Here is the input.
Amino acid sequence: MTEQSPTPEHLQGRIEKLRASQDRTEKQGLARAMAFFMSMGATMVGAIYGGYLLGTYLQKQTGSEMWLPVMLLGSVAAGASIVYQMLKPFLK
Here is the structure.
């Protein structure tokens, strides 16, 4: 039995299928990357806003003006720590 060589049309069809699957994979990768970076931003914003709310609450309850800056600094540090934990698998 002899094998027939593929026709140019057959090869062109295979090439187009491969290109279409690569395009879809690249778009999915871009969407995942965008979602990942947006989640890091949302994490930082949420942490800072939580620190702001807690700081203003403690400031009103105690009458001391030190709580807002302390809570903001703490929330930035906590948010940065969470973002670092999110990035840690990619830093190896």
